[in-house]
Amino acid sequence: MATLNRQKIASVLAKQGILIAFAVFMIAFTVANPKFLSVDNVFSVVRSSAILGVMALGVSFVVISGNLDLSVGSMMSFSTIVVLDLHDKIGPLLAIPTMFGMTLCLGALIGFLVGYLRLNSLIVTLGMLSAIHGLTLTYSGGQNMDIADKSGTWFSVFGQGTALGIPVPILIFISLAAFLGVLLSKTAFGRKVYAVGGNGTAATFSGIRRARAVFMCYMISAACVATAGLIQASRSLGSQNTVGQGLELEVLAAVILGGASLLGGSGTIFKTVIGVLILGFIQNGLLLMGLQFYVQFVVTWVIIILAVWLDIAAKRGKLWSSMA
Questions:
Q1: Is the pLDDT higher at 73 or at 6?
Q2: pLDDT tens digits for range 272-318
């Protein structure tokens, strides 16, 4: 009986451990600082997490399809710099679609290499991380970008505006999550993504065009990155050319925390949103406790390791390997 109970507890921890840990963190942070769960702080956390969240929505498709995308941080830097630069040259009405088009071209290149040429997604996107960073520095001449007339542009609405009392970045995040959630769970394309990630060979023999599905996943990821770059540029109206550096790991951590498997074939948009909020609230709680911001990097690393461990444990139904 004791052995059976231990197995049940281990199984629950393997499947829901990260949510249990999150609940413990939330309680601890609330006790440490009563302002943690105040309405203003909650809105602040969700708003600051919107950029990471939008990027994570797109990466969810890539991970569920059985691939990785480590280029999203550099790609976000590129999209932010491009839209800021073009804002003063051709105006925001043309700058925004032009930036989206350029970012989608990068996504199409990655999708072609991984989907149609069947190259390893880790190697391709790791290489593109450096390549896009170099492209950003070349485009900007190594300089930061700023909008000349910050007070006279409507461009700030995407990052600083509100609608019905809700910050626009939150509305963009929620709307995009709802749309992509339906796309993934209720459409034929979504079922193809799950099939390709679960067993690519079987999916191919079933008549599913694996290459096209993977290509479209990277295009969705690029579109989400462009949206995140738009929010970032609009929020600050200026940016360093390394603004997205390191975000790829946080995005991947959020996706895995949400239950998407590194092996592909499982995950949901709703749980990705939960994963984003877990990271956001934990980082906010650490700051309210007086810890320095760089402690977040260590905590993020711990969370990634924990998430990968629980992901593998959920697959085998227990926390510890029988070979250990």
A1: 73
A2: 998 898 888 888 887 887 777 777 778 767 766 776 676 666 656 55
Q: For residue 79, name the pLDDT band (cuts at 50, 70, 90).
A: very high
Q: What 3-state class would DSSP assign to 289?
A: coil
Q: H/E/C letters for each residue in 56-86?
A: HHHHHHHHHCCCCCCCHHHHHHHHHHHHHHH
Q: Alpha helices of the chain — where are they, by DSSP H?
A: 2-32, 39-64, 72-90, 92-111, 121-140, 157-160, 168-186, 188-198, 200-205, 210-236, 247-257, 269-288, 295-316
Q: How many other C-beta atoms lie within 10 A of the C-beta of residue 141?
A: 8
State whether residue 167 is helix, strand or coil. Answer: strand
Tokens of 44: 């602040």
Give yes or no for a contact between 227 and 96, defined as CB atoms under 8 angstroms apart: no
For residues 205, 208, 214, 220, the Cα torsion angle rounded to the nearest 10 degrees is: -160
Looking at residue 116, its pLDDT comes to 95
Note the pLDDT of residue 101. Answer: 97
Could you identify the residue written with the tokens 């491009």?
82
| Distance from C-alpha of 51 to C-alpha of 74, rounded to nearest angstrom | 14
Q: Could you identify the residue written with the tokens 């939960």?
A: 274
Report the predicted TM-score, pTM, of the whole model to 2 decimal places.
0.88
Tokens of 45: 């956390």
Spatial distance between the Cα atoms of 293 and 55, rounded to a whole number of angstroms: 22
Hey, what are 220's tokens? Answer: 């969705």
- What local confidence, expressed as pLDDT, does residue 26 receive? 80
Q: Quick check: helix, strand or coil at residue 37? A: helix
Q: Indicate the DSSP class of residue 162.
A: E
